[in-house]
Amino acid sequence: MAVEHVPLALRHPEAPFLYRLARRVEEWARLMRLDRPIGIWLLLWPELWALWIAGQGQPKPHILIIFVLGTVVMRSAGCVINDFADRNVDPYVKRTRDRPLAARRVTPHEALGLFAVLVAIAFCLALQLDRFTLQLAFVGALLTVSYPFLKRFFPLPQFYLGLAFGWAVPMAFAAEAGNLPRVAWILFTLTVLWACIYDTLYAMVDREDDLKIGVKSSAILFADMDRLIVGIMQAMMLFGLLLVGRTMQFGNWYNTGLVVAGLLFAWQQWLIRDREPPQCFRAFLNNHYVGLVVFVGILLEYVYAS
Hints:
The chain has 306 residues and is mainly alpha-helical. It has helices at residues 8-11, 15-31, 38-54, 61-85, 108-126, 131-150, 157-166, 168-177, 182-205, 207-213, 218-222, 226-248, 252-271, 277-304. It is globular.
């Protein structure tokens, strides 16, 4: 038999161990949803809005790096603790039954260990920030950890998710500017509202399964008024972003971004017109571009309008 056709395990005795380790790392990465970065982007965009506004177009590089890394780590930690809380529920939901914990490819002890490591990394990152921001970080961590357990009984868990995601906005202002002006709280409120929008679209995908197993969601609460209520929230978010622009005296670059965001919201309404789960999921994913165009508008304001 030629050497190149000999199985790797026969040529390298350590290969079985390395193979098993690689498989574990792959499952841990899936548990952290690193293969599905949409959650990272949805969490990151409001942070970037806040950092650029607080830094007047020039955020401090080390603050930017800490927040980007912190976003990846805390989103990963949130996914792990969410799947741990849902490990006995996810097997009964079509979209989630193949998650590592639900499929029993990762043990609960492994998940908790991974969660502890991620929280430790996030804490080390937070220690690089000032005391005020560090205090806010503890509040954000509490919101992130408690969210998966709240949705068992709270009828609008999307609102609480928005609080967890949005808390990065005041943290960004505290770290970059050392204070929390009115615009920081407007952006925080809009981030909460935006989370209610896109996570309702996400919940519409699982509505039938959630009704069977008793999980609460805004899609269930809103019932057949879901499209209307999402549309109202989309209009409120655009109005709030317009208010941010007026407060910061932004001009055409920013307003163009808002126009494109409005067109994207209209496209999402078209996608969910029949409430078909695949189309609702497409509408959810489309919110990544909403965050992007708003950020591009802010960025261009500081690049060309200053």
